[in-house]
Specification:
Layout: H1 7-46, E1 50-56, E2 59-66, E3 72-76
Antiparallel strand pairs: 1-2, 2-3
Keywords: Membrane, Transmembrane, Transmembrane helix
Protein name: TMhelix containing protein
Organism: Alkalihalobacterium chitinilyticum
Amino acid sequence: MNSHMNKGSAVAVVASVAIVIVGILMITNLYFNSKEIQAAANTCYDNGGLPIVEKTNGKLTYFKCKMDETDEIQIMD
């Protein structure tokens, strides 16, 4: 049995490692985006408001804290 990897095997290993790293980075990004949304919503609730959240691909794209029927605090647009 040959202990040396051939060129095709080396490329497959590098590609596999790259895919795993990209996956980890994407999951980490989604996690921190969800924490950002949760923190903003909690702040809104703490101030007696109702959060209005829009997100695209897990990322916060719009956030508004509706305080009552006429008063709104817009945190992010």
